[in-house]
Amino acid sequence: MPVDVAGATEAVQGVGAIRPDSSYLLATDGVNVVETMEAPDVVDAAERVLSAMRDAAG
Q: Are 3 and 14 in contact (CB under 8 A)?
């Protein structure tokens, strides 16, 4: 299902990636693609990764 992720132009979240009840999220900022799995909060994890990549790029 589509979700809002800060810094992402598109993001989808689902379940069943590793185990039937596990969560995952795919997000893109238009250039990079981030996949987070098994994080306590996959949206927060993706936001942090996208932010770090944006900050590193300057």
A: no
Q: Residue 47: which of 1, 7, 4, 3 has the closest Cα?
A: 7
In this prediction the pTM is: 0.85
Q: What are phi and psi of 50, to 5 degrees?
A: -60, -40
Longest Cα separation, the chain: 39
Task: Write the pLDDT tens digit of every residue in 8-56.
Answer: 999 999 987 677 778 899 999 999 999 999 888 999 999 999 999 989 8
Let me know: does 29 contact 15? Beta carbons within 8 Å: no
